[in-house]
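Forum: Protein Structure Q&A
Topic: Joint prediction for protein chains with partners

I've read a bunch of threads here and the consensus seems to be that you should model interacting components together rather than docking separate models afterwards. I'd like to see that in practice. Below is the full input, 765 residues plus whatever partners are listed. Could one of the regulars post the assembled result?
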Amino acid sequence: MREEKKMLKVSSNPHIRSRVSTSGIMLAVVLALLPAAGYGVYNFGPRALAVIGVTVAATVLTEAIYGFCRKKTTVTDLSAVVTGLLLAMNLPVNLPLWMAALGGVFAILVAKLLFGGLGQNFMNPALAGRCFLLISFPKQMTDFVSEGGSFAGITWDAYTGATPLAALKAGESVNVTDMIVGRVGGTIGETSMIAIVAGACILLLLGIIDLRVPGSYLISFVIFVGIFGGRGFEPAWLSAQLAGGGLMLGAFFMATDYVTRPITVKGQYVFGIFLGVMTGIFRIFGPGAEGVSYAIILGNLLVPLIEKVTGPRAFGYRKGGKAHEA
Amino acid sequence: MAKLTFVGGIHPYDGKDLSKDKPIREVLPEGEMVYPLSQHIGAPAKPVVQKGDRVLAGQKIAESGGFVSAAVFASVSGIVKNIEPRRVASGDMVMSIVLDNDRLYEELPAAAVKPLEEMTKEEILAAVREAGIVGMGGAGFPTHVKLSPPKPEKIDYVIANCAECEPYLTSDYRRMLEEPEKLIGGMKAILQLFDKAQGILAVEDNKPDCIRLLRELTKDEKRICVKALTTKYPQGGERLLIYATTGRKINSSMLPADVGCVVNNVDTMVAVHRAVTEGKPLTERIVTLTGDAMKNPCNYRVRIGMSYQELLDIAGGFRVQPEKVICGGPMMGMALFDLNIPTTKTATALLALSKDEVSAMEPGPCINCGRCLEVCPGRVMPSRLADYAEHFDEEGFLENNGMECCECGCCSYICPAKRPLTQEIKSMRKLLLAKKKKK
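Posted by a regular:
Agreed with the consensus. Here's the joint model:
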């Protein structure tokens, strides 16, 4: 036995690893996005599925081809799927498919890969893709008119006119119940608060995200619009603000993106509060009704600064780096 | 009662079921015995025997090489074969005394002892020093140094580290179950050194039987109490143990004595008891043989100096060919490439794993998830420190408290990208410590 002994492996401690892996986390995020995506297809019809498919294919293919050229496969970590799916959630259902594909390519190639790939991007790729499309094709990106129809016995409604948030801004009344359920116009994945929160619960239960960023984001947003919105803390209005636009999707799925939120605990609260205030400013004082995407992107840019001033205090040290005394 | 614990830490698979119910067995070595002169932190011991000398079990073969150092004793009788460099568990070659075991196990008569109550502090300290006792939990810091703080009157707590938080290890557990009176005896001896100190037996709550037994045995002891700690790795880390039991915090540049604490491991306390009451030096310890590749996981009372290979052969060898064999636990132990290595004073276990999880996983890029920050008991930013270490950015590393890392391994364990964070930080620390020493 000892003659043909196989070599033993040697490495530095520790010698065991947890089961959680990068691709596992990404897969969970994909699963958590499915309720919202599914509702989007149900709400807007099969064309939503086409937009989702094209966007995801674009991000995954971009990642795969880039990896092939660099002789380093990174597509298996599933992060491109997450980016594609998230981007699709942020697109209107009638966007020309080539635009959706272009957005996907931009998100992965420019916002992520050119900065060094997963973990190196300073901006949420899906949001970068969305903002790129918003600036390049403002008309198509804000066209939320969709046709109704039916297929195999399933019918979907037509949506005409403004999104509830725009209506709200114009001073019109909105149906809050419809907004919470998602029976309203908007981008594919943002309309149903219920579906988004259900997906977020999956991530919360799995411990993949926590409430630090979304919690401080939503609370500070409510406080901000309560004070400056001119309607006070009127429950129906606040609910409409919370359920409307991309706030839920942004708070639970995009502001929580590991790479582009602060790594420090204190920093995450600061980040969340910043997002809440910025979103409030954009929605109340800005020209448009929405503000989540730009607020998060601005927040992303501040992350290095936030992390710098919110570093943890090492065990056994007091404020200011002084050691504890007996 | 508030939970006694710390912030951070992990809950890995603990594997203790493999060997926890196996009573301690005696084992007599038959082969060559090797005694490295450096089995402790500090100056190496100096040999006091020569090639060809016959020595007896319990005889001093190397004397302490300074204040921070410890003597080495023969654990069997035999002839000194040579004094030469030998490979030890860390992979280094260390000057060692090699003994040809004559299998007679002839013992040197133990030194005369007085009853503990009549011993002075100096006599107790001398007995500990003369027995060559070092911290047997892994670090190997000479115990008599720990027991001689500059201001002994300022010591409020003597803590017995009975946490045994490292997965798979059961040697301390068996010791507590089978020889609790020796642990308590060691505690009493140490308490005699510190007049106002309170003795704490700090046990993780995954060992309720130990807690019950120790509480029962110490119920009439005014100066000793048993504290149940939350089970979480690395609860047995000295700084975290002090925090959990007393609420006091020290950083890496402080000593437990700075906050009035003295911490010793279970086996160390038993060795103190043996030295003080029986006059016997440190020649044996409990070693756990375990892991899914081990045929018969068990706990052995091992004569220090015996080779792991011989110990393994006696235990029945491997069940399956292991991919990795570790000296110590899976979190802080050292991987061995050869088993022909002597057991030392700090050898807690021989762990054989059929699968090596580390080499099976390809490290990926950091996704900034923050899990390493959450589990780090030192409250530093492992992912950032590893970046600084990778780029040899000394300034960044020091500024971000890189030296506060206790190398517990939690960050590497938890990292979803499977980055070898601990390894990077550890090597940088080693580099910086060496540099500091040079100055």
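Chain B touches chain A through 77 residues (CB under 8 Å).
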